Amino acid sequence: MPANLVVGAQWGDEGKAKVIDYLSKDTDIIVRYQGGANAGHTVVVGGTKYVFHLVPSGIIYDNTVCVIGNGVVLDPDYFLQECADLEKSGFRVKEKVLISDSCHILLPYHRMIDEARELGSSPERKIGTTKKGIGMCYADKMLRMGLRAGDLLDKEVLKKKLEHILDVKNQELVKYYDLEPVRFDEIYPNLLNFAEKMGKNIINTIYYLNEELDKGKRILLEGAQGTGLDIDFGTYPYVTSSNPTTGGALAGSGVNFRHLKDVIGITKAYATRVGEGPFPSEILGEAGDILRKLGGEYGSTTGRPRRCGWFDVQMLKHSIVVNGINSLVLTKIDVLSHYDSIPVVIGYEYKGKKLSHFPSQGLEDVKPIFADYKGWKDDISGICDFSKLPPACQSYINSLQELVGTKIGIVSTGPDREHTIIMK
Fold first, then answer.
1. Within this chain, do residues 46 and 191 fall inside the same structural domain, yes or no?
2. Domain interval for residue 242
3. Residues 60 and 164 reside in one and the same domain
4. The one catalytic residue among 13, 28, 75, 230
5. CA atoms in the 13 A half-sphere facing the CB of 139
6. Quick one: average pLDDT of 216-240?
7. Mean pLDDT highest for which of 20-29, 55-64, 123-132, 173-182?
8. Angle, nearest 10°, between helix axes 184-198 and 155-171?
């Protein structure tokens, strides 16, 4: 059976969680393949809102197993708190979540260094991180200074590795950042507590996933952030510290590429971005504030206001190429019902010349080329039939599909899972 992938086609916050929730009813296993607790996924079911950070949102369904893949950086304290909160809502989390033994563990000093670096950066060099230590944990992974979930299963192995890591990290904290050292006798017991509570859930998920696929199980891969924030394909250096794109999904889960069938790209009917970095279609001033309020564009993890802009065709084409997207989901189309006219960025100019593609450098200096589309001014919230949308709305959706050259398979007209149009 195939594995399918849901990937963000913009700068994150595209509404992936709702789509994952919608697809989960026909899925056996949901896999989170990268990122950490810096991302939040919001799902609305029957008017009740649930926010997920590390636990895959598919936990809502009784029939699904949820896997935290090897590409994730796991904050054990945050994870246990999230499990407790979800269990209060009636979800059976600990018996349904598996953790890769190769998943890296995020520790307190990662958060301390992240915050110190961000606060100490000059305004032009700030990345706009959530200060949750995600990038620092990934850096240690690449430096081979990381602690992995499988290390927690042997007390002596954990003790030896943690002592060595803290010898190095405390020198960095004290000498470079002028911070207090972290104590072994505080971190070690916390990790043992996590191992006691979750140790039976820590397995080799790489073989588990491929074996389950061979048995005929259906797998859905989900990530955090979006293509524009990919460490390799995004607006570097204003990016996340991992690969949310298709390559990252395979590397972060261990799923054999031969199993991958559909790559479903999620995009808003407009665009948003959190943090610093270039944003060609950004709407500044009061007009940006209006769209932000209409769309409720505030981060589900930090509450930070998102920067808002118009739909960017060049950005979407870039995502389609990088990810191999063969179907799109268009979210938040209902938010645009406020407008008489809807601008769309259909291309870029750089130094007087039209660009043929999304640039790797110099995006902050491009001039967006706009085309205007007629608005509809009718409330379309909750409509589940494409033919019942106003003609101007249908035309807008069809135009976006033609501009990006990829079919739109699903249209979301509201936050609830029932507010969904399946395109014929």
1. no
2. 3-99+204-263
3. no
4. 13
5. 12
6. 95
7. 173-182
8. 140
Q: Which of 385, 306, 373 shows the shortest CA–CA distance to 341?
A: 373
- Kindly report the CATH number assigned to the domain that includes residue 57: 3.40.440.10
pLDDT higher than threshold 90 for residue 106: yes
> Which residues have C-beta within 8 Å of that of residue 206, sequence separation ≥ 6?
70, 100, 102, 253, 254
DSSP for 22-54, written as a single string: HHHTT-SEEEE-SB-TT--EEEEETTEEEEESS
Q: What is the pLDDT of residues 355-390, one digit of tens each?
A: 999 999 999 999 999 999 999 999 999 999 999 999
| Catalytic option among 21, 41, 110, 151 | 41
Residue 68 and residue 136 in one domain: no
The SS3 call for residue 335 is helix
Q: What CATH number should be reported for the domain holding residue 327?
A: 3.90.170.10
- Domain co-membership, 251 together with 272: no
353 annotated as a binding-site residue: no
70 assigned ligand-binding residue:
no
Give the separation between CA 407 and CA 385, rounded to whole angstroms: 17
Q: What is the pLDDT of residue 300?
A: 66
Alpha helix positions (H), 143-259: 155-171, 184-198, 205-214, 246-251
Annotation-wise, does 218 bind a ligand? Answer: no
Residue 115: φ, ψ to 5°? -65, -40
End position of a domain, from candidates 244, 263, 282 = 263
* 13 known ligand binder: yes
Total domains in the chain come to 3
Euclidean distance between CA atoms 72 and 141, whole angstroms:
11
- What CATH number did the domain enclosing 149 receive? 1.10.300.10
For residues 68 and 178, membership in a common domain is answered with no
13 is catalytic: yes
Terminal-residue alpha carbon distance, the chain: 24
CB 269 within 8 A of CB 331: yes
Task: Report strand pairing: 271-273 vs 307-309.
Answer: antiparallel
- 89 labelled binding-site residue: no
Residues 215 and 118 in one domain: no
412 is in an annotated binding site: yes
